[in-house]
What we know:
CATH superfamily of the largest domain: Succinyl-CoA synthetase domains
Strand content: 15-25%
CATH architecture of the largest domain: 3-Layer(aba) Sandwich
Shape: elongated
Number of strands: 19
Oligomer: single chain
CATH class of the largest domain: Alpha Beta
Largest sheet: 7 strands, mixed
Bound molecules: acetyl coenzyme *A
Radius of gyration: 25 Å
Amino acid sequence: xxxxxxxxxxxxxxxxxxxxxxxxxxxxxxxxxxxxxxxxxxxxxxxxxxxxxxxxxxxxxxxxxxxxxxxxxxxxxxxxxxxxxxxxxxxxxxxxxxxxxxxxxxxxxxxxxxxxxxxxxxxxxxxxxxxxxxxxxxxxxxxxxxxxxxxxxxxxxxxxxxxxxxxxxxxxxxxxxxxxxxxxxxxxxxxxxxxxxxxxxxxxxxxxxxxxxxxxxxxxxxxxxxxxxxxxxxxxxxxxxxxxxxxxxxxxxxxxxxxxxxxxxxxxxxxxxxxxxxxxxxxxxxxxxxxxxxxxxxxxxxxxxxxxxxxxxxxxxxxxxxxxxxxxxxxxxxxxxxxxxxxxxxxxxxxxxxxxxxxxxxxxxxxxxxxxxxxxxxxxxxxxxxxxxxxxxxxxxxxxxxxxxxxxxxxxxxxxxxxxxxxxxxxxxxxxxxxxxxxxxxxxxxxxxxxxxxxxxxxxx
Length: 461
Ligand code: ACO
C-alpha cells in the first residue's frame, strides 16, 4: 500500500515551471495554491524569475532551503526528467507531473524513464498528463482548475483531464462538497487503486467517485475498490462503454477501455456502482453523500400528482425496489388533513389541491414514524403553491422533526421549481427536476447496501 500521507499533508509544495505570466498553467497553480489557503510553504521554481505572486522564486528544487514533500512539475515533457533528478536529490517524495506528451502520444519510453528515475530517489509519481490535485482538509488546490471548490466529503478521481477539470467546476454549481480531486491521467505510477486505499481509510471522505477509462491492474483495482465499498460507496463513470468509445479512450489516455461486460463483472465483484452518465453519477453522489444510510427497506413516496408517483414507482421497480404499504401511523396522520379522495397507498397522493402545510405535515409524520426508513417527496408545480414555499416546508419539517432519514426530492416544473431545488441543495437535501432522477438517486442508496453486503459475503467465503 502506497503511503500517501505526505501528498495529502505536506509541509511544503514546490511548483516547478511557476510562470510569471497570468493565464499560463504554472502561474495558475501557484495562484490557486496560495489563494485556496494552503497553510504550508509554497515555493515557486523558475530560473528566470525572482518572485511570483509575492512568493520568492528559486532556480531549482535543490536550491530551496528545506526539503519539500511535493513537487508539481509544470514544464514541457522534454524537461521533466531533469526536474525529477533535481527534486529527487533534494528529497522530494511526490512528483505531480502536469505535462502532456508521454504515453498518450506514444512516448512510452519517456514515461517509463520518468517512473524509473523517480523510484530511484524513492519518489512516487502522480500523472503525467494531469491537471493536478485538490485536498480540502489541507487547503490544497494544486490545479489549474476552478479555485473555490466547496469543502465536503466526496473524493473524485478522474482519468480525464479536461472532463475532470470541467466536472470540478460542475461540483461547485451543483453544491457538491469535495474532500479530494485527483487527476490521474496516464497513471504511470500511482493509480486508482492507490487512491482508493487512501480514501477507504480517510475520515474526511465518505463517497468516492471515479471517472475511469481503463484500469491498469484489474485485480488490484477490484480488491482496493471492494475494501473501500465495505466502508463507503464507490461510484464509477466508466468511459468507453461502446466499441467506438473504447477506441476513443485508447487515443486519449492510452488506456485499454476493454469490454463493458468485463467491467460490469469487475465492478460487481468490487461493489462499485456503475453510473451511465455524469448526470447520473452526480445525482447519486448527492444522495449518498448528503444522506445517512437507511435502517430498513420501508421507502415511502409522498406526492401531489399521480403521474409523478407512477414514474417514480416504475424507476424504482427498474432498480429492483418495490414499494410496500405505508406504515399505519403515517397513514393515520395524513388522513387527518387530506380529502377523502386522496390515495393512501404508496405513493401517498396528498392530491393536486395540497397546500404547502400538507407537505410539511406529511414529511414531518414520515420522519417521525419509526417504520418509515426513507422518503421520496414529489411536487408537481401547481399555481396554488410556490415551489420555493414547498421546499421551505420540507426543510422546516426536517429541522423540526430532528431526524435525518434518506430523502430525495423532485420539484417538477419551470423556473420556480429550479429555485426550490437550489434552496433544498443549500440544505444538503438532494433535489432533482424529474421524478425519475429522484427515484434513481434513492435507488443508488439501496444499491450500495446490496453491493456492500455482496462484497462482505464474497470476502468471507
Ligand atoms: N525549471 C523551472 N522553470 C522553468 C524551467 C525549469 N527547468 N524551464 C523553464 N521554466 C519556466 C519558464 O521560463 C516559464 O516561465 P515564464 O512563463 O515566467 O517564462 C515556465 O517555467 C513554464 O515553462 P514554459 O516552457 O513556458 O511551459 P508552458 O507553461 O508553456 O507549458 C506545460 C508547460 C503546461 C507543462 C505544457 O508543456 C503542457 O504539457 N501542457 C499540457 C498540460 C495538460 O493539458 N495536462 C493534461 C491534462 S489537463 C487538461 O486536459 C485540461
